[in-house]
Design a protein that fits this description.
- One of its GO terms (biological process) is cell wall organization.
- InterPro entries: Big_10, LD-transpeptidase, LD_TPept_cat_dom, Transpep_catalytic_dom.
- Keywords: Acyltransferase, Cell membrane, Cell shape, Cell wall biogenesis/degradation, Lipoprotein, Membrane, Palmitate, Peptidoglycan synthesis, Signal, Transferase.
- The chain is elongated.
- Strand 14 and strand 15 form a beta hairpin.
- By secondary structure, it is mainly β.
- The protein has 3 domains: 85 residues, Immunoglobulin-like (Sandwich), CATH 2.60.40.3780; 102 residues, Immunoglobulin-like, CATH 2.60.40.3710; 138 residues, L,D-transpeptidase catalytic domain-like.
- It contains 3 helices and 28 strands.
- Strands 21-20-19-27-22-28 form a 6-stranded mixed β-sheet, with no helix packed on it. It has a 4-stranded antiparallel β-sheet with strand order 1-3-6-5, with no helix packed on it. Strands 2-8-7-4 form a 4-stranded mixed β-sheet, with no helix packed on it.
């Protein structure tokens, strides 16, 4: 038996290195890795592949000892050891952040959102995905998809199951990410999915149907975007909630812009489409479209919705003149699951 990687007395070894070894009797072989003080490092041993993987990145600039032990059965016993030293702490690191945090509760369409402080080169993205496991309880199929070189989302095949739990971790500390850059740290997030609250809007009927846990609980008249400023057709997600705000478009459109106080606003696109109360269009709601692209509801229904929605709740609009543009909001659900999977590098 022998340690084959890292090589004996190797220097500048990456901190997230795997230890590989040979053995004629792998089932009865054990592997331990200890630091310079003799403390054992936590890791997992794959006896079939003959690989030991550290639970997290090793300390930088530290000498480690690998010991491989076999049993005495069939004359295949014995012990061998090898040492290696990890690289110095890198000066170039990429920070990773999660949009969501521990114990947060979100709607059934909420994507998991991870951002990087620097672009991840394409050749490293598959390895990044491998180091971002997601565990849902109960189990649910899903995939990561790259939104840009600095942002990756995860969505399940269908909406998250109501009241489920989701745990994910990003294990990039010490991982090479190209151009002398390395992952700066690891993170974990443990969050909760809320009840199912799904809004569906038909331009044909000018009505919003609201379902909670699969049952229709309300039908609400709406006014969508007029033909010159149509609402987007597609599945969007509540990204932000503002009980009172001011819509001000005078900076971008000095001639035709407007500045209007708005109640119960819920953002669904980056381009400025919201679900919101619009008392000035109450006579039109359910009959004709007069908005600048938003989903107008009455003041009373705006308050009713606002009290019940949460970030991550989906709204699907159909039958308008314009299709939702990919990337105009959290548009992960505007693609089929097979289409979204194509954004993964695995």
């Amino acid at each position: 038996m022998a340690v084959t990687s890292p090589a004996a007395e190797a220097k500048d070894v990456v901190a997230i290195t795997d230890v590989k070894y040979t053995s004629e009797d792998p089932e009865n072989t054990t592997v331990s890795v200890t630091d310079s003080k003799g403390a054992e490092v936590k890791g997992t041993l794959d006896k079939d592949a003959k690989v030991w993987k550290p639970e997290k990145a090793l300390d930088y600039g530290t000498k480690y000892t690998v010991t491989v032990n076999g049993t005495a059965a069939a004359g295949k016993g014995g012990s061998t050891s090898s040492t290696f030293t990890t690289m110095a702490k890198p000066s170039k690191t990429i920070r990773v952040t999660s949009f969501l945090g521990d114990a947060q509760k979100v709607g059934v369409a909420m994507p998991l959102i991870i951002k990087f402080s620097k672009s991840i080169p394409e050749k490293y993205r598959a390895e990044v995905e491998r180091r971002m496991p997601v565990t849902a309880t109960p189990a649910q199929e899903g995939t990561w998809g790259w939104i840009s070189p600095t942002e990756v989302h995860y969505r399940p095949k269908v909406y998250w199951k109501a009241n489920s739990k989701v745990f994910y971790k990003v294990q990039l500390a010490g991982v090479p990410l190209g151009g002398d850059y390395y992952g700066k740290s690891d993170l974990t997030v443990d969050l909760n999915i809320g009840r199912s609250f799904v809004m569906t809007v038909s331009n044909k009927t000018k009505q919003m149907t609201v379902k909670q846990d699969g049952k229709v609980i309300k039908t609400i008249p709406v006014s969508l975007g007029k033909s010159t400023t149509p609402s987007s057709s597609g599945t969007m997600v509540v990204m932000e909630k503002l009980k009172h705000t001011v819509f001000d478009t005078t900076d971008t459109d000095p001639k035709n812009g407007y500045k209007t106080p708005i109640d119960f606003a819920q953002r669904i696109t980056w381009s400025g489409q919201f679900i919101h109360a619009a008392p000035w269009s109450e006579g039109k709601q359910g009959r004709t479209n007069v908005s600048h692209g938003c989903v107008n509801v009455s003041e009373a229904m705006g308050a009713w919705l606002f009290d019940r929605t949460m970030m991550g709740d989906p709204i699907t609009v159909s039958g308008t003149e314009e299709k939702l543009k990919d990337g105009n909001g959290w548009t992960d659900w505007s693609l089929s699951y097979d289409q979204f999977k194509k954004k993964s590098y695995l």
